[in-house]
Amino acid sequence: MLGGGSERLFGSTNSLDILFAINYVNVFTATTTIYTIFAANTSFDPIQAHRIITQAVIVGARVFGRAFAEAYRQASASSKYAQSAAGSSSSSSHNFVSSGLTLDEACKILNVKPPQGGKANMEDVIERFKRLFDVNDPTKGGSFYLQSKILRARERIELEVREAESAAEREAEIKKGWKPKVYKDR
Q: Is-contact 155 103, C-beta < 8 A?
């Protein structure tokens, strides 16, 4: 892919660095090619200028074409890796909400026990939430960041309890069996 010199030159290997490294190497190659063309034509003829310009354009197009193809391959491989990582963690898909808090983190923030079997003492959660939310009020010298973390922790615990309750309802309905309401009068 890249030689060791270009990695030492650019440090990390994200897709933009790779693109620039490829362009650097290819521009150097193109420059030496153009120089050899001019050096070979020591007696520069203005009539042949279009050939030199055409060659320079073709070499430049090849340089950028290769660079973009390599960047596309890198981006494609990166997106495939991200999709496979997301697909393999489907069992833990409920570990994170949009805020990125896990259930354990949320429980530690509010200092409550994790829900056991989908049941939690919601009065305790709400009480601790209100107390911590009020203590961290920015108008009273608190932190908006901490206040938002406290809010996200409460939302995460509530989400877990709601999901567990809906799963329990589904299980009870399956266990009881589905019985549609049929009206005999109609």
A: no
